[in-house]
Amino acid sequence: MKLTLIASLLGAVMAIPAAAQEITEFNIGVLGGENAQDRMTSNECMRAYAEEELGVPVKLFTPADYDGVIQGLLGGTLDMAWLGASGYAKAYLTDPEAVEPVLVKTNLDGSSTYFSIGFARADSGITSMEDMEGKVLGFGDPNSTSGYLIPAVEMPKAGFSVEPGQYFSDVKFTGGHEQTIVAVNNGDIDGGVTWADGQGDWEDGYNSGALRKAVDSGIVDMNDLVEIWRSKPIPEGPVVLRKALPQDVKDKMTALVAGLLEKDQECAYGVAAGETAGFAPVGHDAYETIIEVRKAQEAAGS
């Protein structure tokens, strides 16, 4: 009788899914770029799908800055996030075993690159970076690829030093993409940089990116702004998962995000910050160049 009972209990335990045994919750970090409530709203559908798929409580976390998400992943309090390439580079350089890139957002043409876009108010008389001499430039977050790393590398090569007081009268960090857009739109700074896929129409804020989200939110009318600079193409940042997660959890979440467009187009639009052709597989090697750039910047004390 005892043996039968033990066998029955063992069978019941083995029937419990591995994910239910090994994780009791799943936490998703959402990078800055827009205010916390909008980030929660845009990603709520994915949270709900993840909770249904994993069978454990799933929570969204929207730290005030990029580093909050990065540190959450490094410390194990966050399990998943869509990082920028520079953010992934920081995580990798800090601990190569912390996270793994699994997917990358694709544009409508199938590409997986985007741009750092320099912009100013249309009524400012500023139409190019040459017109920004002696003006105030706004960056977003020190851990942003398009909002800092890439323009901080490319602008000086073109003769636009980003050291305050050299070419620009001042260089300020606004705190994020939405903050930069608002600051330029309000005239608090003369120009700023943000991210966009560079496809579609300027009037729409392009097809995806921070400008598109700002238009959707009613924060700006793109006719009030003008593009004054554009970077070289930047590799889109990866969706990453904490390496220590059970493999079945990683497989389920990768499949969920990869199939999000087919499952729920409106949800994919919110998660991807605009129009997308979906999420495609990606690996570490796609970010080796960005990692080297970040390593060089850190070595230089930037």
Question: Any overview of this molecule?
Answer:
- This protein is α/β, with parallel strands linked by helices.
- It folds into two domains: 26-107 and 237-301, D-Maltodextrin-Binding Protein, domain 2 (3-Layer(aba) Sandwich); 113-234, Periplasmic binding protein-like II (D-Maltodextrin-Binding Protein, domain 2), CATH 3.40.190.
- The chain has helices at residues 2-15, 18-22, 36-54, 66-75, 85-94, 145-157, 177-186, 210-216, 247-258, 260-263, 265-271, 288-299; strands at residues 26-29, 58-61, 80-82, 99-106, 113-121, 136-139, 170-173, 191-196, 225-230, 234-235, 238-242, 278-281.
- The strands form two sheets. It has a six-stranded mixed sheet with strand order 2-1-3-11-4-12, with helices on both faces. Strands 5, 6, 7, 8, 9 and 10 form a six-stranded mixed sheet that branches.
Write the layout of secondary structure elements.
Blueprint (H helix, E strand, L loop, with lengths): L1 H14 L2 H5 L3 E4 L6 H19 L3 E4 L4 H10 L4 E3 L2 H10 L4 E8 L6 E9 L14 E4 L5 H13 L12 E4 L3 H10 L4 E6 L13 H7 L8 E6 L3 E2 L2 E5 L4 H12 L1 H4 L1 H7 L6 E4 L6 H12 L3
Parallel strand pairs: 1-2, 1-3, 6-7, 6-8
Antiparallel strand pairs: 3-11, 4-11, 4-12, 5-8, 5-9, 5-10
Helix pairs in contact: 3-9, 3-11, 4-5, 5-12
What composes the largest sheet? Answer: 6 strands, mixed
Strand percentage: 15-25%
What's the end-to-end separation, in Å?
Answer: 71 Å
CATH superfamily of the largest domain: Periplasmic binding protein-like II
Number of strands: 12
Broad shape: globular
Low-confidence stretches: 1-20
Give the C-alpha Rg. 21 Å
Strand order of the largest sheet: 2-1-3-11-4-12
For this structure, the CATH topology of the largest domain is D-Maltodextrin-Binding Protein, domain 2
Helix proportion range: 40-55%
Q: Tell me the structural class.
A: alpha/beta
Order of SSEs, N→C? HHEHEHEHEEEHEHEHEEEHHHEH
**Tally of individual helices:** 12
- The CATH class label of the largest domain is Alpha Beta
Q: At CATH's second level, what is the architecture of the largest domain?
A: 3-Layer(aba) Sandwich
Average pLDDT number: 92
Number of domains: 2
